[in-house]
Amino acid sequence: MAQHHPQPWYSWEPHMSLHHHHHYQHLYRAEQEEGRYEREHMFEKPLTPSDVGKLNRLVIPKQHAEKYFPLGGDSGEKGLLLSFEDESGKTWQFRYSYWNSSQSYVLTKGWSRFVKEKRLDAGDVVLFERPRLGGDRLYIGCRHRGGNDSPSPAQATTVPAAAGPWSPGYYAATCSYPTSSSCFSSAKQDCLLHAGDQRNGAIQSETEAPTTSKRLRLFGVDLDYQPEPRPDPMPSISWV
Amino acid sequence: MAQHHPQPWYSWEPHMSLHHHHHYQHLYRAEQEEGRYEREHMFEKPLTPSDVGKLNRLVIPKQHAEKYFPLGGDSGEKGLLLSFEDESGKTWQFRYSYWNSSQSYVLTKGWSRFVKEKRLDAGDVVLFERPRLGGDRLYIGCRHRGGNDSPSPAQATTVPAAAGPWSPGYYAATCSYPTSSSCFSSAKQDCLLHAGDQRNGAIQSETEAPTTSKRLRLFGVDLDYQPEPRPDPMPSISWV
DNA sequence: TACGCAACCTGGGTA
DNA sequence: GTACCCAGGTTGCGT
């Protein structure tokens, strides 16, 4: 289950060096107190242009979707409503469903509002977490590419390309985790999310990652890519 | 109730000047005989590109829908089947329902066939009438923009823009009523249409037009716009 | 397979 | 600012 980094190296552990300078510091403190490190990283996804564009949907890579958000029985029909909370304590509800046409899992309703409020751009990263010891709360966060966190009113340091060149190299650069950014917090999931009872056989076989995958697929947007030995949270490694 | 033009100026009263030259004349005659001027204009809508496009649905502006086609109780669930008849005596059935998602009233099933057969284009106008003295017959008609009526096999005088620039100005121009066109007749409504028992309170207040409305709203697409004193049917006024 | 159709969603405009 | 329309989209089912 664990993304084979039980203690995710990019980390939500508060790095003072990252957070002491902005107003979210107290939030991270509070989180430490009330349940320290109880969150487990599920997965994250570097956002594609489509994810932040007019399609108003986030494609969730199949292996993650089936592992963490299995759609069972009746929920397979209409999908479910998933609730997450972000760093500010705000609750975000997304409709989560499977699209037969594209054979993919997506977050639809609600997603565009998240993109807008967080000022997400292609290359930014969304993260999903849950309580380490079970429980049904879900957490969502994001990291702006370039790591130059600024949840300020001004345009969130969107990096050079506002009219973004979504070139291969650009995307790859994007997938480095240079500096963490802002968004994250604790959440409450108020809707069902049965872990068992999958929709079809294919899921079962996906439930445990078959390979010690290094998946890449660059433009096919997969980017699982666990760079094997990552001794310590030293997030400013970038690879091209 | 009356759109405050009991005798609609654009008129279904047979104007020989408009109709004497084509083969629908006898129909208009017949209508005169069997119940002269007994039809009451309900409303009309200039068609948007979506109304005639692949979406296969006609959005009925809310105030008209709730006034003339209230969806009550059980009919609110699945909508109703409305039957209209056109100028040729042909009966058209449409599924009429309310879409929660967009909070709008729509004609769905059957609509695309009407569009196709009448060769409707964006900018053309559909009209809805009913018997003036009550009764449950409904009538549907249309007017081609440019007024150059031609229910001929050839492309119905679609005016300049076939690959239509649906620009504001274009749309506005469209809403002038230059010359009436072809389609209209008497119909039989074979399905329930309870005039009472509205879906919500808002309807009641709409029942009588509050203002001596000259509604315009140009791009908001309303165009109720009865140009007050219209002494005689002189339909070739166009305003931009 | 392709299309009609039911239901859903969102942005932009408006009031 | 906020709430509401509605034009223009989407998915997915059925035929």
Automatic annotation (TrEMBL), chains A, B:
It is found in: Nucleus. Pfam families: B3 (PF02362). One of its GO terms (cellular component) is nucleus. Residues 43-146 form the TF-B3 domain. One of its GO terms (molecular function) is DNA binding. Keywords: DNA-binding, Nucleus, Transcription, Transcription regulation. It comes from the Eukaryota. The keyword Transcription applies. The keyword DNA-binding applies. SUPFAM superfamilies: DNA-binding pseudobarrel domain (SSF101936). This is TF-B3 domain-containing protein. It comes from Ensete ventricosum.
